[in-house]
Write a structure and sequence with these properties.
221 residues; alpha/beta; Rossmann fold; 4-stranded parallel beta sheet; 8 helices; 6 strands
């Protein structure tokens, strides 16, 4: 059985040209499925519905490749899905895409090789770029530290904590910090540390947060 698929990007576009071409190919109108969807949109109700109706020996016909596939990788996934179902695929305006012929199958295989090559090149370039950046001492990922407003809050919080000895809850209200983890993060940036040996609180921005020692235990460490 022949099935046809039609897609237009907006409701104002006329699908008649596609439908007439499919009818000319011998597709019954009842077997033509239609979606109104942009090319980038993944969700296509009628395409999924058509695929659910397919059976071994059927053929899917489209007017052009871009009516059914969002990209080469999407096209290859669809063709692979059709092959598993034992279904042929044909594009009227792209005669080289016709899995009913040996030539068409070869082109699909070639597309798959090109897509894989493109993925490999992207991975290779990304890896090389990351290595090059690291060699030049460029910091990758999100920048560490705080923004201007957050820095001001951190300094104010540390002042209230060290000098005024205010309770944590009061500091949060005064500075405008909503969570305790955020407050302790700010205090840590300002130098608040817990000695790894005895747990006492002290201030030292130079020492690592997880490997900090007070003066009493620093030498022993």
């Amino acid at each position: 059985m022949l099935f046809g698929y039609v897609r237009v990007s907006t409701k104002t576009q006329n699908p008649s040209l596609q439908i007439d071409a499919l009818l000319k190919e011998g597709v019954a109108e009842k077997n033509i499925y239609r979606d109104v969807s942009s090319g980038a949109k993944a969700e296509r109700h009628d395409l999924d519905l058509m695929i659910s109706k397919l059976r071994e020996g059927d053929t899917v016909i489209v007017w052009k490749l871009d009516r059914i596939a969002r990209s080469i990788s999407h096209l290859l996934k669809l063709v692979e899905q059709f092959e598993k179902l034992g279904v042929k695929f044909k594009s009227i305006n792209d005669p080289f895409i016709d899995t009913t012929s040996a030539h068409g199958k070869f082109i699909i295989t070639l597309f798959g090789a090109v897509a894989q090559l493109e993925r490999d090149i992207i991975i290779e370039r990304t890896t090389a770029g990351l290595k090059s950046a690291r060699r030049r001492g460029i910091q990758l990922g999100r920048k560490k530290g705080l923004g201007k407003e957050a820095k001001q809050k951190a300094m104010l919080a540390a002042s209230y904590y060290q000098e005024n000895k205010l309770p944590i809850v009061d500091i949060m209200k005064l500075v405008g910090i909503k969570s305790k983890p955020t407050l302790y993060k700010y205090l840590a940036i300002q130098g608040r540390r817990n000695c790894k040996e005895c747990g006492v609180v002290f201030w030292d921005q130079e020492q690592d947060l997880e490997e900090a020692y007070c003066k009493k235990h620093h030498k022993k460490a």
